[in-house]
Amino acid sequence: MRRGVPRRFWFSRTRATRRTDRAFRPGGLEVNLEERALLSGSTLTSQATAAITVSPTTLPSASVGVAYDTTVSASGGTGSFTFSVSSGALPAGLTLNSTSGVISGTPTTAAVSDFTVSAKDSAGATGSQAYTLTVANGPVVTNLQRFGYHMQPTIFVLTFNEPLNATTAQNLSNYTLVPIQNGQPGAAISLSSAVYNATKDTVTLSPTNRVYVYAEYRLTVNGTAPNGVADTTGNLLAGQNGKAGTNYVNTFGREILAGPNIPSNVSAAIANRINADWAKSAPARAQLSNFVIALEQKLTAAKNASTVSPAAVVAGDSGAGASQTSLTALVDSLERMHLAVVDAVLATVVPDETKKD
């Protein structure tokens, strides 16, 4: 049986082998492949299998909770390709499609992942590309505080864990403040400004009108695409469960009151007095808060448990026909009175010079 050099093999000339290329072509020389070692300095190459290149060389970064979709491709080789992760691992939540080369999914954890994607052609030749994929989390609200009470203008200060994109941070449409009444949100409270402080990574919200201390409110910060609050690299707010691209929602009351809001036109002496009074009044504020909470709880319990008979007469009613509705209205009126009393007590720590609307 004649054993010729297969067509796909080719011997290159070297100093040790001065024969022409023609002599090494099939039919020009009968040579067993095992004998190639005798041809000192000759090299064996493959014309049919070209180098396989996997592209691109880098991948776009990802964000926790935000859908990710990018494609790796291959060139060279023969026929179609099959893709696989040959070393390392993709970030949690992402998968590689072995046929299309699409890397997709929703990352679940912030991390930096190193892995290699390989492509194999129909002839079994392979090529690969190493990648480092960063999954970042969006900015997080670390604190919400209220400053200002009684006649002082109210401001809310949001603190973030990293620098923000100033345009999204100061976009008023990204913030919604509503009162909560009987567990239900009321009409939105107008906000006049949202000011970003790049040094402190804070956003200060100023309601158009004063907001009561002893009432409940809900603040929502938009973290959704395309214009939600984002950091300087474009990662959207991680408002819920550490997932980027979600809203921050906080329902709060008196507990976030952190201090007075001293108007800029107040003298240093008055400002110092306000701050001193605020510090000294801490025990009184705590006592008052506990008293109001206990009173509200008792009133609410009485309102919910009361079974007023139709013939009973409740203060404020004229004659028979009093009902649960009457008691509810009475309790609601008392609660509004308590809010006014609380405001009046808080006013005792505010100098007369600042008691102006």
- The succession of helices and strands, N to C, reads EEEEEEEEEEEEEHEEEEEEEHHH
Order of strands across the main sheet: 16-17-13-12-20
Count up the helices: 4
Number of strands: 20
Uncertain stretches of 5 or more adjacent residues: 8-25, 37-47, 307-323, 348-357
What's the structural blueprint in terms of helices and strands?
Blueprint: E1 9-11, E2 44-46, E3 53-55, E4 62-63, E5 68-71, E6 73-75, E7 82-88, E8 94-96, E9 102-105, E10 111-120, E11 126-136, E12 141-147, E13 155-160, H1 166-169, E14 175-181, E15 184-185, E16 191-197, E17 202-207, E18 217-221, E19 248-252, E20 257-259, H2 268-280, H3 282-305, H4 324-346
Parallel strand pairs: 4-11, 12-20
Antiparallel strand pairs: 1-2, 3-6, 5-9, 7-10, 8-9, 10-11, 12-13, 13-17, 14-15, 14-18, 16-17, 18-19
Helix pairs in contact: 3-4
